[in-house]
From TrEMBL:
Location(s), subcellular: Cell membrane
Origin organism lineage: Bacteria, Bacillati, Actinomycetota, Actinomycetes, Micromonosporales
GO molecular function annotation: transmembrane transporter activity
Organism: Micromonospora profundi
Superkingdom in the source lineage: Bacteria
Annotated region (Disordered), positions in chain: 320-342
One Pfam family of this chain: BPD_transp_2
Protein name stated in the entry: ABC transporter permease
UniProt membrane topology term: Multi-pass membrane protein
Amino acid sequence: MRTTRPEAGWAVLLKRPSAASVLLFVIAVVTAVSFAPEFLSRANISSMLGDMLAPAIILLAASLAMTGGVADLSVGSVLGLSAVVYATVYSSSGSWQIGVLAALGVGLLAGLANGSLALIFGVWPLIATLGMLVAARGLAKVISDGSSVAAYTPDLSTVLKTTIGPLPVPILIVLGLALASSAMLRRSRWGNHLRASGGDEVVATRAGIRAPRIQLALFMLTSTAAAVAGCIQVMRTGASAITLGEGTELYVYGALLIAGFRLAGGGHGSPLTAFLSLLSLSIVLNIFRLRGMPLPLGDILLGVTLLGAVSLGWIRERMERRSPEPEPEPEPDAQPQAAVAA
């Protein structure tokens, strides 16, 4: 009987996204403590996690979308456009509720446009959302006239900056949602439908799963999450900067790819491992700031991280294809029967 050799430790690490995410987190924390002792201060941790809130909201929706086979590169631009719309409507109406509704409408329309281009007109999703990335950024500049729009709401800002110890309450809520989403993806019928849609759309359709409808809903969910993130970012800071949201898509999708998701859809990641990967990237960028390094180096880091994450995903796929399937164990009475027959 042929037996399969146990895999090396590095191979197990590469094939298990959760292990890779945990290792990256440990390395990031050890590096931060070693090279930037002020990293552990309450003020720094609270500030870092607060800055992570908007990307984490998008990450949560994007992790579900990628499970279902949808990747949206326009999330950063939709965040910026929604923030400008919220701030503009709020400054003219004096009502933050109306501003939020207007921003959510922008997010829904952006998701509907992305989904229609991809699912109805057959445009490759990455190309469709890349077009939305450029269009939304341009529209935000037109609406804001190329300048920041003030929209300060003291009460909302105070609520969003509420902490338990050094931990902001909103980021704890997002973490709880990530835990709940991870459990639902593994154990619910809804999670099975998402994985089927992301794995093989044709097979899912034959099984009675309406994959196109699910994916359209996922496009709209991701853009709406970006709109919510834009509103929250303005509520926290009091203004919508014209550069708000730039690079967010690299930040989010770099964490998702590290966590085991695939741009083509599916993968073995979960919202929780994606959250941990995003936290690790936030820690690394925080080290850059604490050490006074030039901000462009952070952009270079994100680009290198994205390339490394894509390479890691490719390596994982190659390892899965090459790994031999375990042979079935012989029946317990197979040998005695052979002996009797002899």
